[in-house]
Design goal:
Blueprint: H1 2-7, E1 18-26, E2 38-42, H2 47-62, E3 68-70, H3 77-80, H4 86-98, E4 103-118, H5 132-139, H6 141-144, E5 149-163, E6 172-181, H7 186-203
Parallel strand pairs: 2-3, 2-4
Antiparallel strand pairs: 1-6, 4-5, 5-6
Length: 214
Amino acid sequence: MKKALYFALALLLTSCYSTQFVDSWKNKEITAFEPEKLLVIGITNNLTARKIFEEDMKNALTLRGINAIDSSTELEKSFTDSQKNEEEIDALKEQLIAKGFDAIAITAVVGVDDKRDYNSGHYSIGYNWYRFGRYYYRFQNVYYTPEYYSDYKVFHIETSIYNIKADEDKSLVWVGTFDIVDPNNITSTVKDYVNRIVLQLEKEGVINNVKSKR
């Protein structure tokens, strides 16, 4: 389960946890992004997590008028079984172009931080805290309760979109980074991440929204 969550991050919440937008960059030279055929790639060695993410992302993009295909149906298992050099990756890009692909959306976990939460309950500042007795009584559980602090993880996720037919120095269309806080369910986590990234892409005008395609 932990390995699966590491993707979903490679990737990627419900009311119990959250996806938070961090930052993004958009190629200002691109006024309209309308790919003929886009490949969705989730980088992870967990096939279940990869399949869930790629299908959800493909479906979300399809609803917005983009011909998206998940990489699990295009990339042979032999390609992901071993590390490839740049020449082999460039050869794959040419193969994809020959199949009609002109864009790739790729998502990966770029970092993981361990965090600690302070479970003191509802905290408020008021006259009660001016009395030492009340203050000490309130927070003495730090001594006696091992669960007073809870550890959790924050996954830093990055999604990049490339125009693979453009010159290398102009191929990056958009890149966005997001934080996923304390995920514990693959399906819900991926669904929330996909929803969040699609909303950001719509907001920045990279893709059309669902309404505009109806």
